[in-house]
Design brief:
Number of helices: 5
CATH topology of one domain: Beta-lactamase Inhibitory Protein, Chain:B, domain 1
Strand content: 25-35%
Number of strands: 4
Mean pLDDT: 72
Strand order of the largest sheet: 1-2-3-4
Order of helices and strands: HHHHEEEEH
Structural class: alpha+beta
Distance between the termini: 71 Å
């Protein structure tokens, strides 16, 4: 009976071991461009516009804290939970949560989540558009 229990436990543990998880949750820059022109590679990519962000909160991923405040202003609520900083923006019918982490001394959005009506995000962006 002990052997059966040990074998069952070993089987469960073996099922947990597998290929390493992909880096899909790791920080990825907002936009990357590949070009054969070295001069073009030396130029920094243009920052995204409000129209680029659309209704998908994941489009905030990779933006710096300065870019976010440029789009939305100061957050409605800010909480620091080392190593993250959580910013919340309140809109009519939704809350936008942004999770920022340090990336070479620059805070960048690593995860964004919209709670509530998806149609709220464009209105939230338009309401803060400079």
């Amino acid at each position: 009976m002990k052997r059966l229990a040990v074998l069952a436990l070993a089987g469960l543990l073996a099922a947990c071991v597998g290929q390493p998880q992909s880096s899909s949750t790791a920080y990825r820059p907002y936009k990357t461009t590949a070009t054969a022109d070295p001069a073009a590679q030396a130029r920094p990519a243009a920052p995204p516009t409000v129209a680029d962000l659309g209704a998908d909160p994941d489009r905030f991923r990779g933006l710096s804290s300065q870019e976010v405040t440029g789009f939305l202003g100061e957050p409605s609520f800010r909480r620091r939970e080392k190593p993250a900083e959580i910013w919340q923006y309140y809109g009519q019918g939704c809350v936008l949560d942004l999770f920022l982490y340090d990336d070479n001394a620059v805070k960048r959005v690593s995860h964004a989540e919209l709670r509530g009506q998806p149609s709220c995000l464009p209105r939230l962006l338009e309401g803060h558009k400079g």
